[in-house]
Amino acid sequence: MTLRAQTAIVGIGDVVPQKGEPITNYWGLAAEASLRALADAGLTIRDVDGVVFTRSGYPIPYPTFPTNFCQYMGITPAWMETAPHGGAQMSSMIWRAAMGIISGMARTVLIVAADNRETRLSRHGVVNRIAAQNTDTEYEYPYGPLFPSAFALLAQRHMHEFGTTSEQIAAVAVTARKWAALHPQARMKAPLTVQDVLNSRMISWPLHLLDICLVTDGGGAAVMVGADRADDFPRPPVHLLGWGDCAESQSVSALPDYTRSRMLRIAAEQALRMAEVTVRDMDVIFPYDPSTFHVIWGLEQMGFVGPGEGGPFVAEGHLAPGGKLPANTHGGIMAYCHPGIAGGFLSILEAVRQLRGEAGARQVPDARLALSSCMGGFMAWGVNVFGRL
Amino acid sequence: MAKPEYVKPRPTISEDGAAYWEACRRHELQIQRCADCGGFQFPARVLCTHCGSRRVAAHRARGTGEVYAYTIVHRPPEPAFAPDVPYVVAVIQLDEGPRMMSNIVGCPVEQVHSGMQVAAVFDDVAEDLTLVKFTPAAK
User: Rounded to an integer, what is the distance from CA A379 to the centroid of its chain?
Assistant: First the structure.
């Protein structure tokens, strides 16, 4: 039995606040994203019989399990799931929903991820808390790394092994703004030059402030059903063709090889094999971008380019509008929106928009295959391949 | 003269890690060696991650190694680190094989590079806490 194309996303919705629009109601945010996705699918909350809900990554002073979400929404589904911290959270929400449907335990699954970390904690508070939570508190944090220090370590090693330059890394941020300029809701639409990035405040060498993703509020939701019902809804269905998931270590000092790791490569191979396609077949991609460097690294790990080729590939503009491998066409979590846990999920929703032909000025012509990668915890990756059949 | 109080984050010491931290106070860098396959590992666990054996034992490392990767922190994660900025956070590959995170001290930050030979030094930051750090060393 193949898992390929057994399920499809038939509704999407997101909440992307602009600067100066703080979201103070966490449950309200999750509910609003849900209502938008349900409306997009022509459904109401009463139609939902399965839920995948992932809680905030930051402390909230009340329980935020799927059960709490269901109570808030007033539903009693027979099947609930959540993506664990430490796993490739957002990508895994997609396959968890699919497994619920394929197993027969649910028919109409609402997938939700939201966070108002910017309002609750401020960027300063978020950055400090991430360092304390995601770094090994016994063997790493006493030495004073920031959370981006882990990305910086990978970037430095890559520069050492391949001669990747800060300019090539900065080109990822420049590219993200080119796409964000085409999205009415992107948080950071102003163009950047490579020099702007290199002039921005140094955070953890070689990464500058503008090499590092946003901290915002926001949330997203999607509705997934079985392939047998995919054509019964107002919007064109986007099928889940394949997925993969792999963890390699939890802390950066335990990762065996910084430039040729296994986790993202294995996750991508699994997803592509299930989808029966190769990287060369992708029309648009959504490589997770918590830092500029991650995009270069991700292209290589997944096999879009060879080892060490990622820097020049990005610097040559291939990921930008008009390029041969359009990537993160909403601006990514670098420039669109990044509520933390939910950031990768918003990138998945943009993949769905691209495949539906709803991406407006950002539309990649005749996009039929999309790949997304998400990082969870610290060192776990998941990949999804979506398609218009 | 009394040491100023140590205000940086202390390690949350695990049951597996307790012996390592005690060895640090004796100025020993302790890793583990497997009695079955001879493999080295850090940090300490109840099983050998090379072969799965339970027969792992404490092993005194030479304290020498090289920098695998490093970064220079310019924005401190907490105010307690602010006086040290800019400082190096590095992942050191010990000669025995395992890697660990630490700070490189005793040289300008610009001098640090992948492959740089280093040797362990012990920083008695508090009465009851010693951190292993690394300085440049000749091979």
Answer: 14
